[in-house]
Amino acid sequence: MFTSAFRLIRILYTVVRFRLDAFIPLKALPWYLRYSLGLFCLVGRKRVQKNKGERLRLALESLGPIFVKFGQILSTRRDLLDDDIADELARLQDRVPAFPGHIAQAIIERDLKAPVSELFAEFSSSPLASASIAQVHTATLHSGEAVVVKVIRPGIEKTIGKDISLLYTLAHLVAKLSADGRRLRPVEVVTDYEYTILDELDLAKEAGNTGLLQRNFINSNLLYVPQIYWDYSHRNVMVVERISGIPVADIAALNKANVDMKCLAERGVEIFFTQVFSHSFFHADMHPGNIFVDVSNPAKPKYIAIDCAIMGSLDEADKSYLARNLLAFFQRDYRMVAELHVESGWVPKGTPVHAFESAIRSVCEPMFAKPLKDISFGQVLIGLFQTARRFNMEVQPQLVLLEKTLLNIEGLGRQLYPDLDLWVTAKPFLERWMQEQVGPKRVIEEVRKQAPQWAGQLPQIPNLVFNALSQISHQNERIEAQTKSIQQLGKELRKGRKNLPFRFMGVLSLGAAWIITDPMLLDNIKATDITSLSLFAVGIYLLVLKP
């Protein structure tokens, strides 16, 4: 708790130090926050010299890797940011301040248990690039291959642990104090992010992710994934093939190479949807610092992806729901969008579909008045999210990475080609995928997938058939016994109905005997007592002894 409090104080200090109050809409805050924060930010106001974008970048760098990641995501949304701010945040992608080369060498030697001179023919102590979690150095193997060596920052796990602890504290506060706390599910979102970023600290996992992504796009003309050198990779060190390409954010260099920017932007969208729907395994950290372009064929440029630390996946239910939702939105079928939200559990089951449909239409229909290429998918999501508040729509943690990646792709695609029509590019792919899910190709694929299991079960089929028939036989015997019991019960009931008048008379006789008998005359028996005893005896006979 003290660690989180200290970290929060540091964040507040950073806000004041770099005058980030310029980004806060003070007029929208409650009066007590507006005046207290305004007075707080008077400190050092005269010493402000840097522009807003530079102050924001420096503040994020000083706060550490989690905040740098946030800046990296923001840097791809030039449609939402001013150019000066986007340009500054773009520097976070691979120009985070580096740590000394001799420390990197010590980490390499400790993890790989050999001197750098034995591991590599050449090794550059000056980093090629430095990011929030790790930095890379160029090297050459003794066999002659050019490689890059990725090294985790020293002490980064402790820093991230503090930030995660603070995020949990803030998430619990939001969940308890905010009216939207339950719907936003902040604790689950932080848990999902913690799992993701801790995976990024393990380069052995990143190497495994890289290997799978490489197999998924083997011989592809869309995406190339560098080769991993497994003998030189460990938890804190990873050695990978050195690639040559133009950084995707270097628009001037791409134009100089005569790259078809429209084709490049559309291929980026196709790669994303292929990963999500065909492979169920997608690169979830596709900021420009992790993407290069092979311009050997400028008319058909090929992407090169690096840094596979953060990967996402969806199950079949999530994929089907997402595809059907997107297609319904493309077709402006707001009724279907509303029904899918209820069906998937995003909104409570009792939500009035017609009211939800009307709310979605009010947000989306004005957007469709513009050309599709001018519609921002990110703005659509934000609008839908805000509209759904009154319907108690909850955040789905399993889709957070997907949504973030889709926003990155849209921002990057429009940076490359401002007239990119995400809808036209995505719709044919989604329609084709949906057809494949219900067509003969899907049936054949399922048969091929299940065939090995069926082959293993084939020798057991005779025993399974015998056991099934035996169970059916025993079940028939039980049914026959139950039938006989029911028939016997029926006979007893019918017999009981025949004797019902006698039973009734027996009850009347017992009642009459009780009424006639006077306990005060037991010492002096008279004719009335003989009559009552006779009635009592007849009642017993009719009620109990009469068959």
Oligomer: single chain
Please give the alpha-carbon distance between the first and last residues. Answer: 83 Å
DSSP helix count? Answer: 23
Which regions have little confidence, pLDDT < 50, spanning 5+ residues? 520-525, 542-546
Radius of gyration: 37 Å
Share of helical residues: 55-70%
Number of strands: 11
> Mind describing the biggest β-sheet?
5 strands, antiparallel
Beta percentage is 5-15%
Specify the structural class: alpha+beta
Mean pLDDT, as a whole number?
77
Task: Categorize the overall geometry.
Answer: globular
Protein name: Probable protein kinase UbiB
EC number: 2.7.-.-
Family: Belongs to the protein kinase superfamily. ADCK protein kinase family. Belongs to the ABC1 family. UbiB subfamily.
GO biological process, one term: ubiquinone biosynthetic process
Describe this structure in words.
Its EC number is 2.7.-.-. Residues 91-340 form the ABC1 atypical kinase-like domain. ATP binds at residues 128-136, 150. This protein has helices at residues 2-17, 31-40, 52-63, 65-75, 83-90, 101-112, 116-119, 156-177, 181-184, 186-200, 203-216, 251-256, 261-279, 316-330, 334-344, 353-367, 377-387, 400-416, 422-438, 440-457, 461-498, 500-516, 527-545, and strands at residues 122-123, 129-130, 134-140, 146-152, 223-224, 237-241, 246-247, 282-283, 291-294, 302-305, 311-312. The chain is α+β, with helices and mostly antiparallel strands and 547 residues long. Among the domains are: 2-90, no CATH class; 251-438, no CATH class; 441-492; 499-547. Helix 1 crosses helix 8 (156-177).
